[in-house]
Amino acid sequence: MTYCVAIKLNAGLVFLSDSRTNAGLDQISTFRKMIVYEKPNDRFMVLLSAGNLSISQSVREILQVERLKDHEADEGTTIWNARSMFDAARVLGSAIRRVQERDGAALKASGVDFNVSLIFGGQIQGEGMRLFQVYSAGNFIEATPETPYFQVGESKYGKPVLDRVITPTTPLDEAAKCALVSMDSTLKSNLSVGLPMDLVVYEANSFQTDKVVCIDENNPYFKMLHGSWGQKLREVFDSIEDPMWHGESTNVPLMQQSTRSLPLKKITTPEEKLI
Amino acid sequence: MTYCVAIKLNAGLVFLSDSRTNAGLDQISTFRKMIVYEKPNDRFMVLLSAGNLSISQSVREILQVERLKDHEADEGTTIWNARSMFDAARVLGSAIRRVQERDGAALKASGVDFNVSLIFGGQIQGEGMRLFQVYSAGNFIEATPETPYFQVGESKYGKPVLDRVITPTTPLDEAAKCALVSMDSTLKSNLSVGLPMDLVVYEANSFQTDKVVCIDENNPYFKMLHGSWGQKLREVFDSIEDPMWHGESTNVPLMQQSTRSLPLKKITTPEEKLI
After folding, report:
1. Rounded to 5 degrees, what are φ and ψ at A187?
2. Interval A76-107: pLDDT, tens
3. Cα torsion at A230, A231, A236, A242 (round to 10°)?
4. How many CB pairs under 8 A join A and B?
5. Measuring CA to CA, how many Å separate B88 from each of A178, B66, B77, B155?
6. How far apart are CA A178 and CA B239, in angstroms?
7. Residue B195 gets which letter from DSSP?
8. Which of A65, A220, A230 is opposite residue B164, by nearest beta carbon?
9. Residue B218 burial (C-beta neighbours within 10 Å; 0-12, 13-18, 19+)
10. Fewer C-beta neighbours within 10 Å, C or N terminus of chain B?
11. Is B173 close to A38, i.e. CB distance below 8 A?
């Protein structure tokens, strides 16, 4: 599996991906899942991919040369001349459909789903930043202030902390920290997600970034974050009182049945009916 | 969906379940997923269920009358006369197979998987406590000191905190608190899991418990835990430094590329080859 997350803030964009790929438990490899497309002063785009590796590699290869034509005489839209991120996402969708046309039937005949999930975001000169999640069928959705982040792959372990922290006004480096905590929780509980990870932080209207880093177990910041988060989480956990059941303490709220709740079903003899 | 978790400690057992059931998003109901079977001074057992509600309700009904016979002349083992939790789990497996025989073919014809996941644990006079996860096929696995907890249903959101806290020596009420934090994270991020929840805490060798509570949004302890955990988690998050990229500070470890890592793939012109 994989875990990728991207966040759209007023201040910029954050992209984070792991690099573990597995075909069964006995075939685990490292493949990077992030690519940056950059034309200084014109466009800055990042693609994150999860799902079948042969499909996502083909999509990335074809995306470089894909021309989307709305009319026959059209010169064609590419990710390099698209005038909006929306159009660039359409080119990406078209590249996915191209791979589907080529490989879909053969994959289906082998019992393999056409499964790829992509996150594609960035900024093109003339409009604001945009962030899309692109599905296997080439259709896509766009992040909004209400839902400012997308995840693909093993998304559940790391979702609670994103839900607690991220809003459009979250500062850029704080969001990067949040993405790393989200990844840390995922690494903790799921073997199919693994280091190194790639992190890109993009500042709005800069059309380039030097905040690009590959993080392995020796990265000083991630080592600190991993250790501090685990230890402080434990301290917070310990600082919350254990439940008290029978009024042993007056300081701790009681673990008390609400008067409106029905009692739990308890069966005490073999003959007792369940319902 | 559902979220249930059960933990086996040296000191006892903790069981926690939510009560949301949904058949599509427009058909959400409340069904309790926990049943206690108790014969004072003889046996104490708890069953938690996830999966297809019609199957789990049938299993629970049949479990009351199921007799497992290893020989024809056998009187038959029931959950009420089983001499070990292992045998009681076998009776449960047999009840699942009974439902499969009755309903499996018709469900399959309607395109419905025979999907049920159960957690079954407790103690029978004469042996220690035991905890099992029981699958749709009626087979089961048992918790061990290395893996002292089982989850069924929407298990991923709440797994990291269990992995961080639970060991066999964790005190009983602390484990109950951990299960509630695990549930709180799940409630936060998944609509298909909902209040009220049922919590049972069982002390080893007691063969009964009065620590049984149905927790809704008015429960004083859960209200405190929910508020404190969210707020303190946020404080911990804020207390960890944001990443520093270019040595602005000497106190914070730098977000620095490891010298052994390969640089991220960056494509800067349409002509550039991907590989």
Report:
1. -60, -35
2. 999 999 999 999 999 999 999 999 999 999 99
3. 90
4. 259
5. 46, 10, 8, 25
6. 12
7. S
8. A230
9. middle
10. C
11. no
List domains and CATH numbers for chain A.
3-233 (3.60.20.10)
Instruction: Specify the length of chain B in residues.
Output: 275
Q: Is the ipTM of this complex over 0.85?
A: no
Nearest CA of chain B to the CA of A26: how many Å? 22
Touching check for A177 and chain B: CB below 8 Å? yes
**Residue A75 corresponds to which tokens in the numbers above?**
């010169």
A156 contacts B36? CB cut-off 8 A: no
In contact, A257 and B214? CB cutoff 8 Å: yes
Long-range contacts of range B104-108, CB-CB < 8 Å, 24 or more positions apart? B107/B52
* Residues whose CB is less than 8 angstroms from the CB of residue B97 and which lie 6 or more positions away in sequence, other chains included: B137, B138
And the tokens for B239? 């207390």
- Token pair 């945009």 is found at A130
Quick check: A39 contacting B, CB < 8 Å?
yes
Q: What is the pLDDT of residues B199-246, one digit of tens each?
A: 999 999 999 999 999 998 889 999 999 999 999 999 999 999 999 887
Query: B245 to chain A: nearest residue by CA?
Result: A211
What residue has token string 């992040």? A143
